[in-house]
Structures are given as structure tokens and as C-alpha cells.
Amino acid sequence: xxxLLTVERVSKSFGGLQALAECSLSVEKGSITxxxxxxxxxxxxLFNVIxxxxxxxxxxxxxxxxxxxxxxxxxxxxxxVGRTFQITRIFARITVLENMLVATQRDEGWLRGxxxxxxxxxxxxxxxxxxxxxxxxxxxxxxxGSLSFGQRKLLELAYVLVAxxxxxxxxxxxxxxxxxxxxxxxxxxxALNKSGKSFLIVEHNMEFVMNLCDRVTVMHQGVDLVSxxxxxxxxxxxxxDAYLGGSDEYDDEEVS
Amino acid sequence: MLRVRNxxxxxxxxxxxxxxxxxxxxxxxxxxxSALIFMGCATSWNMFSGYSGYVNLGSAVFYxxxxxxxxxxxxxxxxxxxxxxxxxxxxxxxxxxxxxxxxGLIALRVRRHTFVVITIAIFFVFQLSAINFSFTGGTAGLxxxxxxxxxxxxxxxxxxxxxxxxxxxxxxxxxxRRSRFGLQLLAIRDDEDRAAGLGVKVFAVKLVGFTLSxxxxxxxxxxxxxxxxQIYPQFVFDPIFDISIALMAILGGLGTLTGxxxxxxxxxxxxxxxxxxxxxxxxxxxxxxxxxxxxxLFMPQGVVVFLGDWRTRxxxxxxxxxxxxxxxx
Lengths: 256, 329
What we know:
The structure holds two protein chains of two kinds.
Chain A: E1 3-14, E2 17-28, E3 32-36, H1 43-50, E4 58-63, E5 66-67, H2 73-79, E6 81-83, H3 96-104, H4 112-115, H5 121-134, H6 149-161, E7 167-171, H7 179-194, E8 198-202, H8 206-212, E9 215-220, E10 223-228, H9 230-234, H10 237-244
Parallel strand pairs in A: 3-8, 3-9, 6-7, 7-8
Antiparallel strand pairs in A: 1-2, 1-4, 4-5, 9-10
Chain B: H1 2-22, H2 26-52, H3 60-76, H4 89-107, H5 112-132, E1 142-143, H6 151-178, H7 180-196, H8 202-228, E2 230-231, H9 233-236, H10 239-252, H11 258-277, H12 283-298, H13 303-328
Antiparallel strand pairs in B: 1-2
Helix pairs in contact in B: 2-6, 2-8, 2-10, 2-11, 3-4, 3-8, 4-8, 6-7, 6-8, 7-8, 10-11, 11-12
């Protein structure tokens, strides 16, 4: 297995707060990698660094051999790294279908948009196909702002998928979602993984992570503490320490 | 549904085309020219600010640059005082676009509310430059070639050129709304960072939109310059223009197609009428103030959206009524 995405010794501080301290991580091609850790351990910051929303102070991020350490979000996306946000972000005042179309051409020159129409037939078909895949195809003509929280999560997943990225970073895909939908999302991720997509998933729902992921990395205070299979992680004393004690931050809902 | 809407557009255009043929009183056709200039400018402004959510309160920069480009070129090229002057109107628009590039490069670096403040600041830089540089004639302003047309027919050519600008700005707005580029502007309005994360080159898209919107506003300024026959910095670089354009679009419906057209038509003709009726140049400010309080309170999304919602609601109510009636039977 080769590494698709490699993060090497990345540091990032906000003023006096060291959010990431020489954190390293890798996502193997075709894998589902989990990223867990207590609140404030730097998971979302790491996502932001990978996808270009934050520039790291030091260290490097490589995607398929290309260095993307300080690339812009649109560049990173164009190369094939898609992401969703912890607080779901959709375009509320345009329709669900138009939301999908924003992402269809992930690497198109900025002038091209002026001379082409909003969508081509094949793009519309692809958009509808992914909407149906996540199960909200019947809402295509609705303004996205009218969707429920769970539907927004699905839409966000769908419009990342429509651009056909190679690796997808999911920030708490199961957060605030009911049990049925959690299972549905897990099934979708498995199906996509079978078709060749790699995933990096931040999630607090331990059952979700342990069932789904091939490998799990645990972060604590900006450092990658341990990496291993779900089995190894479960029994690692360092992990229990990180969650339960030894530091002033812990999260009781995560002990399962 | 779509066909019905097209019919309304054709009717509206026909009324606008025929208006000066039936109404020959220069007072009224003069109001028509001003209203059309504002309709074109508001529509063009809305194409960027309405779609992207970046409220530009420095659009008088484009207007003024259009007017000065026209005046300086007419003088430089010795254009005679006749219809030839109209050929310079698009050149005024191009001048505004050229200025829009550095303007946008600076102002679009910042987001939303800061952007508004920066556009106001840049506007005053331009106004003060026009007052203080010698090639602009300073506060004494500049004269345009005298046009020796008869008073009864004087307004007509201006009216039709202004109408052509309105048609152009409207068609451009439609084209942009239907393009991928327009969709990207709307995505930026709703969530700029998310759009960037989906491959939208946000800065380039904003700059292109900003520059495109300058064209029709610059043409409006150029036409206004010939219409007046002379220009002063305070007239063409006018802070009231900045605000009027934005308010017209917001009153009609920000980001809609008909909104800015309707808003500009209503406000500009009301203002002109009040100014003539009460021979007091400022009374419209009081009326406008009250009007905007009402709009913000009762239809914050603008008249067009409000009426659209109202129609949908009443249709639903009627459908419900029909349902109840059929149940009763």
C-alpha cells in the first residue's frame, strides 16, 4: 500500500496556543483512516492545514507526491482532496442542484466560467446521480436553505463526491445525526471505499470509527499519539490516558 | 410560465420604446432619460454586488470615470457637437473597467463589511483627485461640445441610448446568472470559504465580476455627461449616487433581475417628480428616508421578492380553498 496523503511534522500555533506540534499522519491509498482525540487536540486544525485553509508554521503536506503545504483551498481541491466541515456548510440561497454544480468542475480555469453555461448535460446527470446516491434526489429543486440538518450533511457529502476527489476528509460525519442516518452514512462510506475512494475521518462516535476504519490515529494536544488498527487502539494505555486523565481536557461522551 | 414572463418583458420594453413617441414634453422625457440611466447602473451594480453580496458603495467612481473619459476624449479628438458623441459612450464604459481593475485588486482583498468601507474610501480618493488635478478642470469642471438640437427633440436620442444601456445591462445580468461564473458569484455570496474549498477561484471570480459591472455604469456616466453638457466633480463623483444605486437595488430586490430595474424606475422618477412639483431639490430625501424604513421593516428582501412570495401564498390559499370545497362536496 502506498501513501496517498502524507502529513509530516506539521506545526501550527495561534498566538500562544500550539494547536499542532510536529504532527504526522498518513492515509494509505484505498483506506479509511480514522482520526480521533479529545476536543481541542488539533484535529480540525490539521484538516484546515491539509486543505489549505490554514498555512502551517513548519512541516509539509504531500498528496500523491505533490507538495501541497501552502497551496490555496481551490488548488488542493483541484488536485483531488475533498472535505466536509464540522459545522455543515452549504450554499443556502441557491437550489440543492445548483449547490452540486458549484463543485462539478474542480479544475476549470477562472475565465472558462464566463463563457460556459451553468451546467452541461453530463454534469446534471452526475449531480442527480450523486444526489440519488445519498438519497436526497427528490429535493434537487428546493433551496438548500430549506434542508434539515441531516439532509445538509448528505448534501455536503454529495457535492464533494460529484467532483470525484481521490481522498475525502470528513469532519464529524456522524455528529448530531440520528442512529439510522449514521448507519446509512457508514454504508455509503463503505460503498465508496470499495469503488476506490480513500477517507480520512474525524469522529467522536467511537463505535462508528472502530467499525468503519482500517487504521486509526489518535491525536492529543497537537501531536499524533498512536496509530494502529482499531484493535490496537482500543487496548493502548496511552489512549485511555489521553481521554481519561493525565491532562486537563477530556470529553466524557467519548468513553465507550 | 416562462412564456408568460417573456411576454411581460416584451410589453415592458415596448412601453419604454414607445414612451417618447407619445410623450413629447421635454420635462417628462428628461425624467425618462435620468430614470433609464439609473436603471442601467442599478442593474449593472446588482450584477456584481447583488449576486456576490459584496455591497459596493463606490460605484460613482465608475460613473465619474465614464463621464470624464467621455469629456476629455471629446475635447482631445475634437468631436463635433452631434450624434458622433454617442460613439464615445462605450469608450467611457471601457475607461471605467480599466479603473475597476486596480480598484478591485485593493478593495476585494477584504471581506464584506470592510469591503464596503474601502469602497467608500476609494470613492473619496477619486472625488478629491477630480477636484484637485488640473486636467479635470478642478471645481470649475469641464464643458462638452454644444449640441444645437431643438429643445422638443433634444431628449429623444439620449433616451434611446440610455434604453440601449438598460437592455445591455439586463441581458448581461441574465447571461451571467445563467453561466457557471454567475453560479460561482452566488456561491461566494452564501459561503465564500466553502466555495474556495470546492475549487472556485474566488478572488479571480470577484475581480472579473467587479470589473464587468463597471462597464454599464461607466457608460451611464458618459451619457449623463453629454446630456448635461458640462461636468463637475461633485456631480459625477457624487456620494448620493453611490447610495442611490445601492438603495434602488435593495428596494427592488437584491440579486433579482427585475428588482434593480423597478427600484431605479420608481425612485428616480419619484425623486425627479418631487423636485419639480415642490421646486425643492431635497424634499425627496425625506420621502426616501420614510420609504426605506418601511421597506426594511416590512419587506427586507425587496419589493420583487415580497410580491413573489405574496403571490405564491395567495395561490396556495386558493388551492387549499379548492381542496376544502371539493372535500365538502
